[in-house]
Amino acid sequence: MDTTQRLAVAQRWNQSRIRNLLARSFGPLRIARRDRRIARWRAAGWLGQCVGAVTALSSGCMSDEQTVTVTVVSADDVLTHMDAISHLYQAAFSAPPFVWPEGEKERQRAMLQRLAGRPTFGAALAFAGTELIGFVYGDTLTVGTNWWEGFTTPVGPEVMRERLGRTFAVIDLAVREDWRRRGVGRRLMDTLLDGRPEERATLAVQPQSTGSHAFYAAVGGWEVVGRQHVPDMGFTADEFDIYVKDLRAAQP
């Protein structure tokens, strides 16, 4: 078998493998989301080109030992990997341009343990072999949430109106520095949100983090609805730009 044939076989194998990995749930909406995601990965060249590897790289080839696995995990799995998640969180957010207040590492661990105990908690982890290289987690907003408080300019009442099960809040997403700009962050977000039953998702970004803003612009579907000034809420920073994404909308 020549090189061209080997690459063709590998690509067909990778496409089939990824479909199987993504087929976690049933129902027309989730299947449609899955198929749109596969189409985006194919268009971006992220369906593996290496024999025996399923990768998220847009260029180059990786060995089997560097194969990236991204999957939705249980709360118990998150707690099992708590130390690795905490270490990656600190590495990603403790340096400029992010605000890193005293005691932030302990605050994040306590918050994640609390969130993991909720029935609406959701998370996805990314591994290169056995090493954790990325994570994303969040929870469904409650009706009495303070998530929509503190906007510096008026925001429409429909945006701020919360009802049971309407909104999933993405609390934190991080990718190890040497794995960034390889599609891992997008895969984490897609993998988590494609399986959620909520109508929409929301997240908060520190305004000065231009890299984070560029990431969500590139991912697509996220809209900034306003800026919050919340110095007394006990959050990491005093200001956040709030994003919203309609999970029911068709993706290009």
TrEMBL record:
The lineage of its organism: Bacteria, Bacillati, Actinomycetota, Actinomycetes, Mycobacteriales. Pfam families: Acetyltransf_1. Residues 70-252 form the N-acetyltransferase domain. One of its GO terms (molecular function) is acyltransferase activity, transferring groups other than amino-acyl groups. Transmembrane segments: none annotated. It comes from the Bacteria. The keyword Transferase applies. This is Acetyltransferase (GNAT) family. InterPro entries: Acyl_CoA_acyltransferase, GNAT_dom. Keywords: Transferase. PROSITE patterns: GNAT.
